[in-house]
Write a structure and sequence with these properties.
about 25% helix; Glutamyl-tRNA Synthetase, domain 3; binds magnesium ion; 7-stranded mixed beta sheet; 27 strands; glutamate--tRNA ligase; 13 helices; EC 6.1.1.17; alpha/beta; binds adenosine-5'-triphosphate; Rossmann fold; elongated
């Protein structure tokens, strides 16, 4: 068969994978279960999934659970749920912890072959030696001593905690990551899967190349800041005589005004700056979904960046603009008037309004196939006072979808106005066109929320502490009177409130009364930062 027969069409910007053969490609996404997935992880998993599908190969999702101090079952569960949200279906789910015994055996082989040694040099001194390219005084311990100290480390004793295993690579290397990296260290915290079976764990640098090779990964995709580690990764596979795996670098994704690191995101959660990992201000998968991203748009946006190797600082505006393209035409229109800023317009000649007077209007003016809805009509309507303020007696205004009203009385001070429908007037002509809502016992109350970034600096420089750049002014909310039709919205439904924007329903209407309002989150329109 020819490769082109099985390849899906290219997503713009996505490169080929070097040396990739159809049906044989195996990629992997290796999240550490130490936090929830963020938008950067989404890029990593979507790219891996994309290449696996494109070459009709396999995608492994591997929980990289080698550090029990940071990892939790809760995070693991959340990652599985978030992958489902991203519509990623792994072919295989594995755990680095399933390979602990195997990795340990490889580590002991390295010791026996003189390719690794035990070291109790204190951390700071070890760092200094690395900088000075100076061998550790323990580098030439005998195999017997190395095995003895390895056992001591594994015993979990305080004495053993001082020892770690280091790969005997090259302290003279210009590449710092080759200077005898740490491969195994003690940790007596119980592991969320293996419990207290092990008291020492392999580092990522040792575990990753071994497990990638053992699991049959053909292409390991890594962000380009790992480039320096490629040499070390290959060294490990050679040293343990495992099949070499190709590395394919891709650009880390960063966003302006945003921190993307689990450690920092955890800080926001623990210090109450957000309501949880699914906070709509958060760059987590859950956060952006709650803020109103559509998964199709998210995928298109991320795959559109492709596997390019240039590190990019993304703008949220482009992300949300992509979203708007996807959802705008699918979102029914509603009207709502702000409670605080509402004006009252009394219209003298509404034909015989009663409790059952309605206007039939399209849910979406451009797409009549989306259906119709009824809008209550009466003599008294609410509009935004900002729309009517300054209006002159005699001026004609347009109530959208209803008609043209000629103002007969105007009082900006009380926001009370009077008028009458102008027969046969062209609703396109008046300068002032406004949304409106009839006074009605059926109107319901909504709370509208708008969110902003958590960080007030576009890009933090090296050495700057994100805690010094917290944007405290990141939330605005208001109450609005809404069309009774809004009552039927379900959680996650997306609507447009005319002349305000797109909103996602975060909490459904609970009835009359304080606290039972429907909660709607404004979806950024891509026009602001
Ligand atoms: P964080 O810095 O947020 O803790 P991490 O790299 O330590 O991220 P992992 O769970 O180890 O978290 O990451 C899983 C995969 O996601 C890795 O392959 C990593 O390269 C990738 N990844 C993490 N952050 C980004 C990002 N901002 N852009 C692209 N890929 C990322
Ligand atoms: Mg990591
Ligand atoms: Mg990281």
């Amino acid at each position: 068969f020819a490769a082109k027969d099985v390849l899906e069409p290219l997503v713009s910007g996505c490169h080929m994978l070097e040396g990739a053969l159809p049906y044989e490609v195996c990629t992997r996404f290796p999240p550490e279960p130490s936090g929830y997935l963020h938008i950067g992880h989404a890029k990593a998993v979507l790219l891996n999934d994309y290449f696996a599908r494109r070459y009709k190969g396999k995608l492994i999702v591997r929980f990289d659970d080698t550090n029990p101090s940071k990892e939790k079952e809760e995070y693991q569960q959340a990652i599985i749920e978030d992958l489902a949200k991203l519509e990623v279906v792994p072919d295989i789910v594995t755990y680095t912890s399933d390979y602990f015994e195997q990795i340990r055996e490889y580590a002991l082989d390295l010791v026996r072959e003189g390719k690794a040694f035990m070291d109790d040099t204190p951390q700071e001194a070890m760092q200094a030696e690395r900088m000075a390219r100076q061998n550790s005084s323990r580098r030439d311990l005998s195999v017997e001593d190395n095995l003895k100290y390895f056992a001591l480390m594994e015993s979990g004793s305080a004495e053993g905690a001082k020892w770690c295993l280091r790969l005997k690579v090259n302290m003279q290397s210009v590449n710092g990551t080759m200077r005898d990296p740490v491969a195994f260290r003690q940790n007596t915290t119980p592991h969320h899967r293996s419990g207290d079976k092990y008291k020492a764990y392999p580092t990522y640098d040792l575990a990753c190349p071994i497990v990638d090779s053992v699991e049959g990964v053909t292409h390991a995709l890594r962000t380009t800041e790992y480039n320096d580690r490629d040499e070390q990764y290959a060294w490990v596979q050679n040293a343990v005589r495992l099949r070499r795996v190709r590395i394919h670098g891709f650009a880390r994704m960063n966003f302006m005004y945003t921190e993307l690191s689990k450690r920092k995101l955890t800080w926001f959660v623990e210090n109450g700056h957000v309501t949880g990992w699914d906070d709509p201000r958060f760059p987590t998968v859950r956060g952006v979904v709650r803020r109103g991203i559509n998964i199709t748009a998210l995928k298109r946006y991320i795959l559109g960046q492709g596997a390019s190797r240039n590190i990019t600082l993304m703008q949220w505006s482009k992300f949300w603009a992509e979203n708007k393209k996807e959802i705008d035409d699918k979102s029914p229109r509603f009207m709502a008037i702000s409670e605080e800023g509402k004006a009252t317009l009394t219209i003298s000649n509404v034909p015989a309004p009663d409790a059952n007077s309605f206007l039939t209007t399209d849910c979406h003016p451009k797409f009549p196939e989306m259906g119709k809805r009824l809008m209550k009509i009466s003599n008294t309507v609410y509009t935004e006072s900002s729309d009517l303020s300054g209006v002159q007696v005699g001026e004609e205004i347009t109530l959208m979808r209803w008609g043209v009203v000629k103002i007969t009385k105007a009082d900006d001070a009380t926001s009370m106005y009077e008028g009458e429908f102008a027969k046969d007037a062209d609703p396109k002509l008046p300068k002032r066109k406004m949304t409106w809502l009839s006074e009605s016992a059926q109107n319901i109350r909504a709370e509208l929320f708008e969110f902003d970034n958590l960080i007030n600096k576009e890009k933090l420089e090296e050495g700057e502490d994100f805690k010094d750049f917290i944007n405290e002014d990141n939330l605005a909310s208001m109450f609005a009177v809404c069309d009774a039709n809004i009552k039927n919205l379900k959680k996650d439904d997306v609507i447009q409130i005319e002349r305000r924007g797109l909103y996602r329903c975060d909490k459904v209407y609970g009835g009359k009364g304080e606290g039972k309002e429907i909660k709607l989150f404004m979806i950024p329109d891509g026009k602001t930062k």
